[in-house]
């Protein structure tokens, strides 16, 4: 049979709940071969096929890595970061970035590469050196190149490739402006995600089939209206199901057949898990830089992850210094 290509896009966010630091949304684009099928759209469950092929090479925990053919760590970003060390996230994201055709010489290049519009939001002028020390994982090009080559070979056997990774980092000032315009942060998350997805899809070949996997956005179950807004080409969205565990839609956009899956705990699946890891890494890098900025001016200040209770403690402790510098509350404090 003739071989066709299908694209799997995984998305996820980090920083939806905090009052401090950016909301980060990431989108990862995978390409996979598949048997020619009859009908439009094809009846295959592409996500299940994708994970059947790639799953044997994926470790979900650090303890699994290197055992039984598991050569790439992709799992729940919250569990992987429990130790507070970024290298478990960073090494996998670095491999993914290199599989997309980029070579990182310094960790500081990551934000500029994946979310270039966010580079101006980083506070400290010496972040280049700081991020390299922060990750605590040296840029050993030769050894990492071999590990990346092993992953590339496994992907080739599975007839899968990693095409692109992009992210959006919405810092507090922009977050508050969009929140005022849109009314709630669930809509802000949805619109940011779909804008990122639409941009990625436009770069794919015409007549491509695309599956988009997203986590649920703030518990929302209905997405047809916002899909009309971002993908208006053919003027229709077919609702396959809508409910608490899963909402699925089918539509056409710029000649491409799309299936959107909004699924609770989507990061259980490889495409969304890698997006989650990427978003988490970028947010933690930004938060470390944010904390360091204030700690440089307030000796003994304890860092914050930015979540509501501790964010109020931190904001109160920086209040006097913030006012001295003339920094407005809306520049660093997210209203929701």
Overview features:
seven-stranded mixed sheet; globular; alpha/beta; two-stranded parallel sheet; 336 residues; 9 strands; 12 helices
How would you summarize this macromolecular structure in one to three sentences?
The protein has 336 residues and is an alpha/beta fold. The protein has helices at 46-54, 77-80, 87-99, 109-114, 127-135, 141-158, 172-182, 185-202, 224-230, 270-295, 308-325, 329-332, and strands spanning 3-14, 23-35, 58-59, 72-73, 160-170, 209-215, 237-241, 246-253, 256-263.
What this model shows, in words?
The radius of gyration is 20 Å and the shape is globular. It is α/β, with parallel strands linked by helices and 336 residues long. The N and C termini lie far apart (53 Å). A hairpin with a 4-residue loop joins strand 7 and strand 8 (246-253). Residues 36-42 have low confidence and may be disordered. Helix 3 crosses helix 6 and helix 3 crosses helix 10 (270-295). 43% of the residues lie in helices and 20% in strands. The longest helix has 26 residues, at 270-295. A seven-stranded mixed sheet has the order 5-2-1-6-9-8-7, sandwiched between helices. Strands 3-4 form a two-stranded parallel ribbon. The chain has helices at 46-54, 77-80, 87-99, 109-114, 127-135, 141-158, 172-182, 185-202, 224-230, 270-295, 308-325, 329-332; strands at 3-14, 23-35, 58-59, 72-73, 160-170, 209-215, 237-241, 246-253, 256-263. The protein is built from twelve helices and nine strands.
């Amino acid at each position: 049979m003739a071989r066709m290509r299908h694209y799997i896009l995984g998305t996820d966010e980090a920083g939806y709940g905090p009052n401090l630091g950016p909301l980060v949304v990431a989108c990862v684009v995978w390409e996979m071969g598949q048997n020619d099928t009859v009908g439009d759209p094809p009846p295959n469950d592409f996500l299940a096929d994708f994970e059947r092929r790639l799953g044997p090479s994926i470790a979900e925990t650090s303890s699994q890595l290197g055992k039984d053919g598991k050569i790439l760590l992709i799992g729940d970003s919250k569990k992987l970061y429990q130790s507070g060390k970024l290298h478990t996230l960073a090494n996998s994201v670095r491999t993914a970035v290199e599989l997309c055709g980029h070579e990182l010489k310094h960790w500081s290049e990551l934000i500029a590469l994946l979310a270039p519009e966010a580079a101006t939001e980083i506070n400290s002028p010496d972040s280049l050196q700081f991020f390299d020390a922060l990750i605590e994982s040296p840029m050993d090009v030769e050894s990492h190149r071999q590990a990346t080559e092993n992953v590339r070979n496994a992907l080739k056997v599975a007839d899968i490739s990693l095409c692109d990774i992009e992210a959006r980092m919405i810092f507090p000032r922009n977050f508050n402006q969009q929140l005022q315009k849109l009314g709630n942060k669930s809509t802000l998350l949805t619109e940011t995600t779909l804008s990122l997805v639409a941009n990625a899809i436009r770069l794919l070949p015409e007549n491509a089939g695309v599956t988009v996997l997203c986590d649920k956005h703030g518990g929302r179950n209905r997405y047809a209206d916002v899909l009309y807004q971002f993908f208006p080409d053919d003027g229709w969205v077919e609702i396959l199901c809508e409910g608490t565990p899963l909402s699925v839609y089918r539509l056409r956009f710029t000649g491409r057949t799309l299936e959107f899956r909004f699924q609770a705990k989507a990061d259980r699946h490889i495409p969304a898990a890698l997006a989650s890891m990427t978003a988490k890494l970028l947010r933690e890098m930004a938060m470390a830089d944010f904390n360091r900025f204030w700690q440089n001016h307030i000796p003994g200040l304890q860092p914050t992850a930015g979540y509501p209770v501790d964010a109020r403690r931190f904001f109160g402790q920086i209040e006097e210094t913030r006012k001295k510098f003339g920094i407005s509350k809306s520049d660093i404090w997210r209203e929701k």
